[in-house]
Each structure stands twice: as structure tokens, then as C-alpha cells.
Amino acid sequence: MSTAHPACRSLAPLTSLRAGAVAVAAALLLAACGQSAPGGSGDTPTTLPAVTTGPLRPLTSQPIAADGALDCPAALDSAAGMTVPEKPQGVDGAARLLPERDPSTLVVCAYPTMRLEAATPLTAPFALSQRVVPDPTQRRAVVDLLTWAARWNGQERACTMMAGDETAYLVGATYGDAIVWVGAQADANACSRGTNGDFVTGDPVGVPLAATLSGQALPDGKPCDASGLGRLDDDRTLAPVGSPLVTVCRLDAQSSWQATPLDASRSGQVVELLRSLPTQPTDHVCEGSGGASDARFSLVLRYAAGPAVRISVDPGCRPGVLGSGVESADAGALVALVEPWSPPIPGPDPDGSVSSP
């Protein structure tokens, strides 16, 4: 049997944004998404892929609006959100979407590319519909979103085929000595990517970007909540650099998350083990799951800065460990380490009905 794990992240961000919370019913329904996993599941250790270094392009003059932020192009030729007016200047754009520092100015440009209620389909060139200089709260959210965006691991994600409005975005950031544009798309299926021209993220950053501009936010307050997006360097390791605290999350028979927070010592042991596991790029799909869910659990890794990481563990599935960017074949070592601190509990009935709590 081929299935995606209940935490299948390709749909989680969209569900979160539309519902305003990560509904437990959605966690169960997401188990049906996906396609067959490829053969081979990280049986041998892999060398971490090299992080490329981008060219340091000289700073050039770019159009500036009266408010001091970058001016938006009048239109875009592509609906994909994967083109930018200029590639990064004055900074290594291959390191991450935006530098890890506060920009001097920030602007967001919106270009509708699909409107279901439009009398005629929108076609290129797609005209600018909105130029936003984010308020301080929005600005912080946008900068954090793009600074920590995960590098694409080269694997396509399983996606739904829902119809919905779509918008391409450009985010323009200036740093005094650097200028970076980021392109992204907000699509109904959260299947899009984003880029600054040098760095490509596999996460649909346009979806939370659109939510931020409209005053919404991804739920990330409860111990088992996580945005579903990745974190920088999760294409290289299950546990990106840092010293995160770990929470073990299990679904109970009522489809509610039960959290077991681990202290720094136990969290360190889990993180060390995660970093030692052999991995390969993941498409977030496993073979053999679909039965009783009692033994499944998720690990939520929370860092001092930037987004949390969610790792799905299912000893009845192969591969048994699904991270944001990589997977590992055997969940046995993790199960043996974690179960004394968080024993299995009766999970939802796989043959029962699913309803929202």
C-alpha cells in the first residue's frame, strides 16, 4: 500500500490558512494524499549536498518609489512567480532567499494571475494590482518567512487539484549595500515554489505571504502546532543546525494531539540521533502505512529563532521517518529512544469516521 504520512506537508499550509487552525481531522485526511514512493529509502548514509555559493553581483541602480522602497514592475510575463526583475546584488543569493538581517526597506508587489470569477481568463502580461509597504508586524513575518525558507530538495510534492484564485508576488528588499527580489506564487494547492534567482525554495512561501498581507497567520502556538513549511538546511539533515527543544506528539483516539515536551538533555539525544540517520531526499510519501496509528508520532523541533521543524515517524511505513526535506528508512532507533518518554497511546480508528473536533 502506498500512502502519504498523516502529516503530509504539501497540503498542511493550505489547510491551516483556510481553516485558521490545524484541524486534527485534516491530519487524518492528509494521509490519503500522495503517490508511490520511489525505490530505495536511504539505506546507506549519504553525503550532505554541497551548499553552492552565488556570484556577488555589483549593486546597480533600480527604480525607487517616492516612499523610498523599490518600485514594482508594472506587469509580469509569467504566472509561476519564479522570475525576478534582477538577481541578488551585493550579497550571496545562493545562501538563502533573503539575508539574515533586517532590510532597510521592504515592499510586496501583487499580480493576480487567475481569478475564478473573472469573465475572461487572465493572460500575460499580468498587471500589478497592489503595492504594499508592510507594517512592522507584517514586515517581521515576511522577513522571517523568507530568511528561513527551506532550499528545494529537487523532489516534487504530492498536490491536490483544487481550483482557486492565484496571485504572483514580488518582494523587494534593500539593505544599503544589497538588493534582493524574491518571486513567489499563492496558489490554491500550495504546490508552488519561490526564488530570488539564485536560491530556490521548495516551500509554497507565497501562500503564507498572502495570508500575512491579509491579516491572517499560521497557527503555531500550541506545542504540536507547526506551520508545515520547512526550515533552511532541511534538505541536508533531519535536524537543521541549532539546539532545538523537542516535543513528541501523538494523536489520541479522539483525534486530538497529545504532547510530551522533552527537556534539553532528552531533546539533545533526539537531535543527535536524527542527525546521525542516513537520509535521502523525500517526496513525503511512504509505503505500507494506513492501518492502526497507535505507534505513529511526530517530533516538533522548536528553535530559538526561525520556524519549527516537524518530523513524522511511522514504524509501520517505509521509509519510517519523513522530514521536511529528507527521509530515513528505519524508524526503529527513534522509536526505541522516544517510547520510554512517550509510550504509544490508542490512536484514531482507521476504519471509523473522521470529523472535525
Q: What would a concise description of this structure say?
A:
With 357 residues, the chain is of the alpha+beta class.
Q: What assembly state would you assign to the polypeptide chains in this entry?
A: single chain
Q: Encode the helix/strand succession as letters.
A: EHHEEEEHEEEEHEEHEEEEEEH
Number of H- or I-type helical stretches = 6
**How many beta-strand runs?**
17
**How many domains comprise the coordinates?**
2
User: What does the radius of gyration come to?
Assistant: 21 Å
The whole-number mean of residue pLDDT values reads 82
**Main sheet overview:** 7 strands, antiparallel
Proportion of beta-strand residues: 15-25%
Descriptive account of the structure:
With 357 residues, the chain is of the alpha+beta class. The protein has two domains: 2-48 and 236-338, no CATH class; 75-213, no CATH class. Helices cover 15% and strands 21% of the residues. The strands form four sheets. The chain has a seven-stranded antiparallel beta sheet, covered by helices on one side. Strands 5-3-6-7-8-9 form a six-stranded antiparallel beta sheet, covered by helices on one side. Helix 3 packs antiparallel against helix 4 and helix 5 (264-276) packs antiparallel against helix 6 (332-338). The protein is globular and about 60 Å long.
